[in-house]
Amino acid sequence: MGLTRDEVEKVSLLARLQFTPAELERLTEQLGQIVDYVQLLAELDTTHVEPMAHPVDIANVFRPDEVRPSLPRDEVLANAPHHDQECYLVPAVLGD
Amino acid sequence: MSVHELSASELIAQLNAGEITSTELTRACLDRIERYDDRVQAFLQVGAESALEQAQAIDQKRKQKQPVGPLAGLPVGIKDLLCTQGVVTTCGSKMLEHFRPPYDATVIARLKQADAVLLGRLNLDEFAMGGSCENSAYFPTRNPWDLERIPGGSSGGSAAAVAAGMLPLTLGTDTGGSIRLPAGLCGVTGLKPSYGRVSRYGLVAFASSLDQIGPFGQTAEDCALALEVIAGHDPHDSTSVAQPVPAYRAALRQPLEGLRLGIVREHFGEGLDAEVEKAVREALRVYESLGAKLVDISLPHAKYGVAVYYLIAPCEASSNLARYDGAHYGHRTDEKAMHKQLAEERAVLQAAGNERGLGQLDSALVRMYRASRAEGFGAEVKRRIMLGTYALSAGYYDAYYLKALRVRRLIRQDFDEAFRQVDLIAGPVSAAPAFRIGEKADDPLSMYLVDLYTVSANLAGIAGISVPCGISQSGLPIGLQLQAPAFGEEKLLAGAHLYQQATDWHRRRPQLP
């Protein structure tokens, strides 16, 4: 089984990460080992088993739709790497 | 006994009796941190000044006979994964090196309400991903029993601080064993509550369907004391369960005659260290002598636990950690350098007439995300994000993620079946005592297998506790794990307390040089 370097590179874009060629080599090998190990699950027939996404059976929880205070903007923006007191600033998305 | 040898419960009794003030106790903790933490390195940050202010305020309250909370004046340390308003919360990551949360986690708010003295931020594997505390972006914490060894993880700082007598009580989190494992390896008591027992609001998410917050102390009684404070429904976390919080300390003394203790056949197989097996079996004999019945049980899907966990946890992590985008908070790459780099790459591709390469070149925004995350996250965090993104990607979702969710249900059903026959399950916490720092650093898979005995409880949502039950010939602690059905903490804590009344392993302390 295992993974190819191309697959790992493709996933790195999906994950919004980037790696040097040496890191990619290493990661391909390590992820391959882990993926091989989890193949262990394939030996189980789970056709009639319901997936369990969560340990507690919970339904939607609603609260009344009332206006409540939110976090103060200046405190929230204080953690932003780049802002103009009102908005987050990011590299241009359009016209690049 | 000196102050650092006393348990949290004993110290609370002394504080309430006026035998010691919070200021004296806080100073004693700070002195001990000053003396030993340059070697143990449990703390990422020590808030001496603010701790002393809190202590004085509580001493004043007591002096004026005002009502005080159940943890009044007790110094408590916090795993640096729990948001504390205005206090840098790094999650052991360079990504959040300067992050000051604008709000308190619910457990922090409850500790404050209980008049605890918040003293310091404890080291961890980055974003709680790891079993050794070596994945902290800052430094590895060391095991107080042997400074060349790991304290376990991910809540390594929380366990080591209690083991070294630097703090009587700490909080950690447990996603696949991150409380029980370090508790076992450091010779302290650590409780992972049932999923939904404690609010996760303000716990920086790793794997939301597995994460729980829990305490470390010297004794099960300490854990009961802390759980009474932090447990309970919270409107901020809709997965916290609206069940009343029992008086856990009072429940410690419930009669446990005829306690049925399940011994899992699969837990005593290949790979279990002989000394660990001997200590655990000896603990089981102690239980027998106290009137417990040992029942041979099977958890047939136990061996799939690690594989299920290392699919589900990375999948949830890859989604949760998508929030670190370099835009809202956390590390952002140097934009000037980034634009320069992109321009260079474009020029090279243009010169070569590589149209395909040009088409695939990152936009500035995408490159900002990728560079910020590549710089901000450490190797293990990236590995797990990659693994999770892969397992969730088109074509693999059914074979990996969905398959893991199905086997997760089988694991849960094993426990349901077992708990029809027994009250608690007893066995090892880890297959071996603490390993040496660096020993498994280049082998992620062997590191993952350390979690063999602990991950199933998180997958099933049940409760577990680690209590000291022996010391190896080389002087390293060995832990016994007890597990209870979801919301069975009363019996779990009472079972651990029963053992601690009959043994003194939890009283053993390392000789710090």
In short:
The complex is a heterodimer of chains A (96) and B (513). By secondary structure, chain A is mainly α.
Q: Can you describe what's shown?
A:
The complex is a heterodimer of chains A (96) and B (513). Chain A has 96 residues and is an all-alpha fold. Chain A has a domain at 5-42: Histone, subunit A. Chain A has three helices and no strands. Chain A has helices at 5-14, 21-38, 73-77. The longest helix of chain A has 18 residues, at 21-38. Chain A is flat and about 50 Å long. The model of chain A has no long low-confidence stretch (mean pLDDT 92). Chain B is of the alpha/beta class. Among the domains of chain B are: 3-258 and 493-507, Amidase signature (AS) enzymes; 327-376, no CATH class. Chain B has helices at residues 8-17, 22-40, 48-63, 106-113, 156-163, 180-186, 220-230, 248-251, 274-289, 305-320, 335-351, 355-360, 364-376, 379-392, 398-421, 444-448, 455-460, 489-502, and strands at residues 43-45, 75-79, 117-122, 169-174, 189-192, 212-217, 260-264, 293-297, 424-428, 463-471, 477-484. Chain B has an eleven-stranded mixed sheet with strand order 1-3-2-4-6-5-10-11-9-7-8. In chain B, strand 2 (75-79), helix 4 (106-113) and strand 3 (117-122) form a beta-alpha-beta unit. Chain B is globular, with a radius of gyration of 23 Å. The two termini of chain B are 19 Å apart. The mean pLDDT of chain B is 97. Chains A and B meet through helix 1 and helix 2 of A and helix 10, helix 13, helix 14, helix 15 and helix 16 of B.
